[in-house]
Specification:
Elements (H helix, E strand, L loop, with lengths): L7 H12 L1 H12 L7 E2 H4 E3 L5 E10 L11 H13 L14 E10 L8 E8 L10 E8 L5 E8 L5 E4 L4 E4 L4 E10 L13 E5 L4 H15 L4 E5 L2 E4 L9 H9 L2 E2 L6 E5 L4 E4 L4 E2 L2 E5 L2 E12 L10 E12 L3 E5 L5 H10 L4 H13 L3 E2 L1 E4 L1
Parallel strand pairs: 15-23
Antiparallel strand pairs: 1-14, 2-11, 3-4, 3-6, 4-5, 5-10, 6-7, 7-10, 8-9, 11-13, 12-13, 15-16, 17-22, 18-21, 19-20
Length: 382
């Protein structure tokens, strides 16, 4: 009879394998998943047609200011205050009305989609007269109208102003803009925008950035997810979707399911530069052909000094100041860097950093490469 001795290390390894088997299987499952880090949901890429906000505007008065309101030369403030007092049953002499504590303002707001009567929305209050500061004031009842002239909301309340201004005749201190403020939830919706969402038989989605590839991928993703050909691309910026029979009468649930789908959007090769701030933003797909870039800064230094010319002792003459101007011109040594065809944006940045180019120099270099026909991207100069 032959006896085999058990290996303790083998038993220990088998025990550890059984203990960590679920974790290992989970890691393997994660490794085989497709990479979707660049995917975005449809709700970030497109907007449902008809579901939009509406702009509101109104004219009102802010009262309770500490002598920082409009001056007496602002005629429309005087007229508005007198008209308001007459509506309240007070007869006043318009020529004797003082508006130091009152400011005429324009009130703006955005009526969100599906806003119902009784909902509250934020409003922005901006002075239109010569008021110095509207902090601490209270907005009186102001009707907010839409483009059709109908009143959709009423605004009133105390303002939140993120600026201040103090000073006198000799000095003044100001921070931010003290003539504009906001009233969170300061307007009450009084009229609804008529829109029956549940009765929609077709849904049209508008891409925020039109692109034929992106809208084609969106259409394919919708049809693949629902297993039916319910989506069709109309053009490079819109997609039409017909809810399937299983979602009849459940338009909200269908839209929620559809907008959760992830799509990898296609991007345009583009370089955006801002000459004022020296900001450069380059897309991932920016490519250039073989090109040589030489960079050499021309430095011009101009300095001025003054010398005093004084006459000899006992001599007749005057002491005068003679300005002296010194001009020094120097040019840095230029380096010639060759960038091969088809390089990526990282190679472009590395090559330009190697020659010591500043952001403003990069703007001039990109403009020169674009003029040479070697830049395969849109160059947008702000």
């Amino acid at each position: 009879m032959i006896f085999f001795q058990k290996n303790p290390y083998r038993q220990r390894f088998s025990h550890l394998l059984q203990q960590f088997a679920p974790v290992l299987l989970g890691l393997c499952f994660i490794l085989v998943l497709p990479v979707a880090t660049q995917a975005s949901r449809i709700k970030e890429l497109a907007q449902l047609e008809g579901v939009r906000a509406n702009q509101l505007v109104g004219y009102g008065l802010v009262v309770g200011l500490n002598g920082t309101g409009d001056s007496s030369i602002t005629q429309f403030t005087n007229q508005s205050l007198a008209n308001m007092l007459e509506q309240l049953g007070l007869i006043v002499d318009r020529s004797r009305v003082k508006v130091d504590n009152v400011a005429a303002v324009i009130v703006t707001a955005e009526l969100p989609p599906f806003a119902r009567t009784g909902s509250r929305i934020d409003v922005t209050v901006s002075s239109i007269g010569d008021a110095e500061d509207i902090a601490g004031g209270t907005l009186l009842m102001t009707p907010l109208k839409g483009p059709d002239g109908q009143v959709y909301a009423i605004a009133q309340g105390s303002m939140v102003v993120g600026g201040l201004a103090f000073g006198g005749k000799a000095a003044k201190v100001q921070k931010n803009h003290p003539t504009a403020g906001r009233i969170p939830g300061g307007a009450l919706v009084e009229r609804e925008v008529p829109f029956d969402f549940s009765a929609q038989r077709e849904l049209n989605y508008r891409l925020k950035d039109f692109d034929f590839t992106t809208v084609s991928r969106m259409t394919a993703a919708v049809n693949r997810h629902f297993g039916l050909k319910i989506a069709a691309a109309l053009d490079g910026g819109s997609m039409r979707v017909v809810p399937p029979p299983a979602y009849q009468g459940q338009t909200v649930e269908f839209v929620a399911e559809l907008e959760r789908l992830e799509v990898v959007p296609d991007t345009i090769a583009r370089i955006v530069v801002n000459e004022k701030t020296g900001t450069i933003v380059m897309g991932e797909k920016v490519r250039i052909s073989t090109v040589a870039v030489s960079h050499g800064n021309l430095n011009l230094v101009i300095s001025e000094s003054a010398e005093v010319s004084q006459p000899n002792p006992l001599g007749q003459g005057q002491t005068v100041v003679i300005p002296q101007t010194s001009v020094d011109i120097s040019e840095d040594k230029g380096n010639l860097v060759v960038m091969e065809m088809g390089v990526s944006i990282g190679d472009v940045a590395s090559a330009l950093n190697a020659i010591g180019a500043t952001p403003r120099d990069l703007i001039a270099i990109f403009q020169a490469i674009k003029a040479a026909g070697a830049l395969y991207a849109d160059l947008v100069v702000l």
